[in-house]
Hints:
This protein is an alpha+beta fold. It contains four helices and nine strands. The chain has helices spanning 34-39, 85-98, 109-138, 150-188; strands spanning 2-8, 12-18, 22-29, 47-50, 55-61, 66-71, 79-82, 99-106, 193-204. It is elongated. Keywords: Membrane, Transmembrane, Transmembrane helix.
Amino acid sequence: MKKWIINQSETTNFYLILTEKSVWLTEKPKEVNIDELINDKKLTEVRIERYVDDIKEFIFIDTNSTLEINLKDDDKEDIELPLESSIYNEIKSFLIPNLKDTKVKDYSLIKQIQPAVIGTLIFGAITYFLHTIALSLQNGEEIRTSGRRGLIKKIFVGIADFLGPTGSLIIGGLVTLFFIYILIKTISKPQQGKVIKTKSFTELKF
């Protein structure tokens, strides 16, 4: 087991603890002896994410000294830990060689631009559909909203009717342009780092 204080306030310490099988995150008052709690098995209020069952990958972002822990369960919020550079480098130097049965690779540009590309495509398509519906409504055409996914169709028709053709283009275009801006910014200044992908028998060796 290895631990770091990764954040602190006037009264508490926030700990990242690495065990053989899992990651622990916990916040405790400064006067508490966390080693005693661990040894006596009295450590409570701990978030535990297991390498095999819960964690999909660790992302070490060198550019801003941030550790991201992406989880397999889409319903659970991923963990993002901004760190001091010295602590970041220590955790990275320890975890990469000692976490076994993993795949380590560079933090690729393709992975970094995925959210912006997806956002651009989704909002570009939504803008197109809203504008098309708004034009049809403006021309007095009837839009069929019954049948499968009728509720979604009604929502789109309602939004298109409210915004109109011009409003649909302006609002949708601005959101799409925002994602395009993020895409261009990411491509021009990609972040550097490492990705550790877990496998079926990932565990930490001390």
